[in-house]
Amino acid sequence: MTVRTFTMPTSLNESLAASQPPNSETDRSPMKSNQQSYSNEQREPLASHKPDCKPGITFAAQDKLPKLPIPDLEGSLKKYVEALKPLQSSREQEETAAAVEDFSKHDGPELQARLKKYATGKTSYIEQFCKSLLSLQQSTPKTWTFIVHLS
After folding, report:
1. Among candidate residues 48, 109, 102, 124, the one with its CA nearest the CA of residue 73
2. Cα–Cα distance between 92 and 151 in angstroms, integer?
3. Beta strands in 4-50 (DSSP E)
4. How far is residue 83's CA from residue 148's CA, in Å, rounded to a whole number?
5. What's the predicted TM-score (pTM) here?
């Protein structure tokens, strides 16, 4: 039987210190004098460069753009049911249609009215919801999928 012994490796700092000659200060002096011979502009050529762009130009006309319209509830629900058809069995389609019908009669109109009230004075009614969902998606290991219909 062969016995192997291993030694603990040394750190990178210890390895570098051991490989340098004891009088390393004299070796560095020419490098220091070379650096001093260059001007500040030659050592850092981009330090004085100022970009020619105006700050905030990307969203400068944001308030002048038309607001994102809120799609009507009935049209959105019809498109939702149609989008699910290829993914569902006939029984699931019937259950979805019943759930959508119930939603359109009870909770849907109230939520639609609340969304319209929320959107008053905002440039985008959906932006905050997207940011919230994205932060939720990044903080949890689950994958969240949401469908947004814009007419």
Report:
1. 109
2. 25
3. none
4. 12
5. 0.49
Give the integer Cα–Cα distance in Å for 145 and 127.
16
Q: DSSP label at 85?
A: G
Contact between 109 and 73 under an 8 Å Cβ cutoff? The reply is: yes
In contact, 93 and 85? CB cutoff 8 Å:
yes
Q: Which two tokens stand for residue 111?
A: 């939520």
Q: Looking at the chain, how many residues does it have?
A: 151
Question: Could you tell me the two tokens for 89?
Answer: 């069995």
Burial class (CB in 10 A: 0-12, 13-18, 19+), 76: buried
User: Which amino acid would we find at residue 47?
Assistant: A
- How far apart CA 31 and CA 21 sit, in angstroms, is 16
Distance CA 108, CA 102 (A): 9
pLDDT one digit per residue (tens) for the chain, 151 residues: 666 666 777 777 777 777 766 654 555 555 555 556 777 777 777 667 666 656 677 778 877 888 878 899 999 999 999 999 999 999 999 999 999 999 999 999 999 999 899 888 887 888 887 777 777 666 655 554 555 555 4
